[in-house]
Amino acid sequence: MKDNSEKKSQVTGAKNKSGGSKTTNREGWSNQLKLKILYQHSSKSTPMGEGYNYREEFKRLVESGEYWLLKEDLKKVITTPQDWWPADYNLYGRLMIRLAWHSAESYRSFDGHGGANRGEIRFPPRIDWPDNIALDKAIRLLWPVKKKYGKKYHGQI
Hints:
Elements lengths: L6 E2 L6 E2 L12 H4 L21 H10 L2 H14 L13 H12 L30 H15 L8
Helix pairs in contact: 3-5
């Protein structure tokens, strides 16, 4: 006996009599997949933890004098050419500006995700986008500074 009751897809929420999701060419993937589950805010979605306060951390950084050390280390990274990736006129400044620009341009105002805040450009699929070619080199250049100063977002450095 055939079941004619409507069933709802767990992924798309679409209803049809066959039990699966009904897909037509008019329905784009952005309307079909429910991705909200991926963007739920929780303490597990940030490496800093629930008690992290950016304002207080930055204040501590300045008051302890670490800010000026961080600035000097960044200056050293930008002005020290590496054998594995030649710099334009012995400066990586343009590469770092490009990294900041491409990282920030992914911000989505409708849900507040993306952007430079967590340095997510360093992960696939964003780092693999065609317009982000060679930005992995900038991230690699910044890694020693990130490692030295520890609990700071990549986007801050």
